[in-house]
Amino acid sequence: MKRLLFIAVAVLAVAVPIATAKVVSLGEPTEGFLPSSPCPGKDLEGTENDISCVSPYEVTGYQDTAEKTKEGPYLIRRDGRITSFTVKLGKVTSGAPDAQKEFFDDRFDAPAAVQLSIVRPGKKRRRRNDYRVVGESAIFPVDDYFGSSPTFVLDKPLNVTRGSIVALTIPTWAPVLARQQARTDFWRSSRPKGDCGTDKKNAPNSVQERKDLSTWGCNYRGERLLYTATYVPENRTTKPLSPDDAQAGAATGRNRPQELGSLGGGAAAPPR
Fold first, then answer.
1. CA distances (Å), origin 230, targets 27, 81, 190, 214
2. Cβ(8)–Cβ(258) under 8 Å?
3. Which of 62, 117, 199, 246 could form a disulfide with 13 if both were Cys (CB 3.0 to 4.6 A apart)?
4. Which residues face 159 on adjacent strands?
5. Digits of tens for pLDDT over the chain (272 positions)?
6. Separation CA 31–CA 153 (nearest Å)
7. What separation in angstroms does the CA of 156 have from each of 65, 74, 135, 166, 229?
8. Is 102 left (phi over 0), alpha (psi -120 to 50) or beta?
């Protein structure tokens, strides 16, 4: 008589790492797409429908709230890494007497560029508007990508910890802003209160240096910074059974090997 060959299945009483992390696109709308920059402009005929080409400049900022995104769209809730980021650029004009690209280049004495920054807000209530740059990517020129949405892969991923925020730095200028959005949409900038800038008054350069703590005093409502970031949370691992739990499982038979035919309540295969 042949001995029955069966497969034993046991509940392991050891810690087994289980990869539960998923790639997350921070700032990505839950439905639809990011809005668009008004550049090069719309209905520029002196009417009430005019929308001028605008560009953030010499600033670090992040979107605090935005329609069709989860609360805190750029807040890190678990330690992990940022591996890339994407910006949605307006299509500025170039080569004409009133060319927008040349206007901005001359004004800031540099071409358009972007950079990703990781910032940490103050922990105490009285420091909640203070931020410190704790990580930053290389600077990426974007003047070859106007009118598109380039993705920049980081040669060295940025480590992020729970509670930090993924911000966008614009060291020169870049058409990465949508205006005339919902009133509930607003972004915070690194500029001091009282120097936020208007259409008639330029705001000061407030690009933060790493580890430099400063008070962010300017919020811009009805606007949307046009960037997303690829975030990979760290894997979670299973909790190992304690010796007492393992012993209790053995006593109740939960750890006892079973023949394949008895799994799921079925009868074991009869011997032949």
1. 9, 8, 23, 26
2. yes
3. 246
4. 81
5. 545 444 443 444 444 445 556 899 999 998 889 999 989 886 555 555 667 888 999 999 999 999 888 899 999 999 999 999 999 999 998 887 678 999 999 998 899 999 999 999 987 766 778 999 999 999 999 999 999 999 999 999 999 999 999 999 999 999 999 988 999 999 999 999 988 986 656 788 888 777 778 899 999 999 999 999 999 999 877 666 666 666 666 666 555 554 444 344 444 445 55
6. 24
7. 28, 20, 11, 16, 14
8. alpha
Q: Note the pTM of the prediction, 2 decimals.
A: 0.77
- The token duo for 70 is 């989860």
Helix, strand, coil share (%) of the chain residues, nearest 5? 10, 30, 60
Query: Measured over all CA atoms, what is the biggest interatomic distance in the chain, rounded to whole angstroms?
Result: 98
